[in-house]
Amino acid sequence: MTVSTAALATSNHLIVKERPTPANIAVWILIWAELTEFALFFVIYLVVRSHNPELFSAGPARLNTLAGVLNTLALLTSSYCVARAMAAIRAGHRKLCMKWLAWTLAMGLSYCAIKAWEYQWNGAAGINSRTDLFFTLYYYLTFNHLLHVLVGMCTIGWAMLRLHWGAFDQQQHEGLEGAACYWHMIDLAWIIIFPLLYVLR
Amino acid sequence: MSEFKYRKRRNWLSERQVLIAVWSLLMALTLLSALTAEAADPALWTVLFISLIISLKGQLVVDRLMGLRHANPAIRYTMLSYFYLLPLLIVWALIFPEQLAWLTTL
After folding, report:
1. In this predicted structure, what is the pLDDT of residue B11?
2. Chain B residue with minimum CA distance to A29
3. Cβ contact (<8 Å) for B68 and A57?
4. Which of A11, A78, A183, B93 has minimal Cβ neighbours within 10 Å of its Cβ?
């Protein structure tokens, strides 16, 4: 191995070592608990669907697909923003990190606004949580997810305050990683909710 | 600029490019699944295709956006298994609903 290759290998090794598992074990236990809760909802949805195939086949066509798509795009973009914020803090750019966290919050707010519009649209179409079993599960899943988005927004907001107060920098940003991982978890749950409720007919 | 600083900067730029590519792919996969819902009749291939998209999107978020690609394997594979098992469960439940209904009838 030449000196330059060794330096490259060493450098690459350092880069890998610079990216250990984000956050701490408590955050991961919380994330696993939340994902398990959502997984139970998904299993319940599939079991009820297997007993009422016609009802669940017709249900998605009555929903506002555009709202579902826009919500998915907003959440995926928010996950991208939070990943950019983490890349910025790792590179030591605190202001840039703050900017990307603000974009994350803006995407979260967009999600809430679209969801409010969707619920209003449903109401105008005569759809509510007691319309049938499909819509009961639809409201249960989406409202529960909306609550998680609100909690995630509070977490990101708190992380922004701590960043502003100087609690995070290039070397120490574990709390910020925890908030970012929680936000990604919310996105992960929606990645399954969207096709289950809006796409699969 | 020292060699190390140069490598670090180059690596950060490369990470940004990867994130943009992943975000674009996630957008495209979402639009593709929405188009499938609107254009295609419910069929076996639709269920398989949508489940594959769920799995791909989950893996992209876990590995690239969450940054678990080089993380502790126990945490990474636990997260990834969510996007292997649930799509399989969805495929099974939608293709063989009678079986699931029979198993869950008291």
Report:
1. 57
2. B75
3. no
4. A11
